[in-house]
Amino acid sequence: MPLNRNHLSKGRDLVRTAGDHASDMFAPLTVIGRGLRHHAAWAKDRWQATPKDRRGPTLFLTAAMLTGIYLLPHGLLFALIALMASAAWAGRAPKAPPAPPEPDVADVKLTALYAALTPYLAGPDGLGPLYHHEGGYRDVFSGWEFDAEGRLVRLEIAYPAYFTDTEPAARARIEQVVQGKAGRAREYRFDWDEESNRLRIAALAPLPTDIAAQRFVTAPGEIVLGFTDEDGSARTIPVHQGGALVQQPPVVWRTGPRSAEPHLLALGVRGHGTSSLIRSVALQALPFADLLVIDGAGTGEHACLVNRPGVHTVETSLHGALAALQWAAQETGRRLTVLNAARHSGTTPPEDATRPLWLLLDHPTELSELAHAEGRPDPQDLLELPLRHGRAARVTVVVADDVEARDRISPSLRATTRARVVLGPTGPEEGHAALGVPLDIVPATRTPAGRGYARIGNGAPVRLQVPATVDPLDEDAPASLRDAVIALLPHRDTRTEAPAPAAQPVQPLPDGPPTVQVELDPEAHTGVDLAKGPAALRFRPLA
Question: What SS3 state is found at 182?
Answer without folding.
Answer: helix
